[in-house]
Write a structure and sequence with these properties.
Layout lengths: L2 E3 L2 H9 L3 H15 L4 E3 L2 H14 L4 H8 L6 H10 L4
Parallel strand pairs: 1-2
Helix pairs in contact: 1-2, 1-3, 3-4
Organism: Candidatus Roizmanbacteria bacterium GW2011_GWC2_34_23
InterPro entries: PIN-like_dom_sf (IPR029060)
Protein name: PIN domain-containing protein
């Protein structure tokens, strides 16, 4: 199965749908991953960048940011760390 290391922009375009052409490309990757045709990998730095951009640029609240980021599949330890950081949501 092919493995793709995904940049923050793919996730942001997919969630925010602020650019239809880029959303279609991102959606294609996420659909293939959902069908287990490919594996998407988000590095820790990318997840932090996603959180930062959602908070600072798009002014999303912590609860919504947690909802979006927790849809990603990644190691349970990272989910637990993120959940602990956002425990007041």
């Amino acid at each position: 199965m092919p493995i793709y290391y995904i940049d923050a922009n793919y996730f942001l375009r997919f969630i925010l749908k602020d650019n239809l052409a880029q959303w279609k490309i991102a959606n294609n990757y996420f659909e293939k991953a959902k069908q287990e045709k490919i594996k998407l990998v988000f590095l820790t730095e990318v997840i932090l960048e996603i959180e930062y951009v959602m908070r600072k640029v798009y002014k999303l609240n912590r609860k919504l940011i947690f909802k979006y980021i927790s849809t990603l599949s990644f190691e349970i330890s990272l989910i637990d760390i993120f959940r602990q950081e956002y425990r007041f949501c």
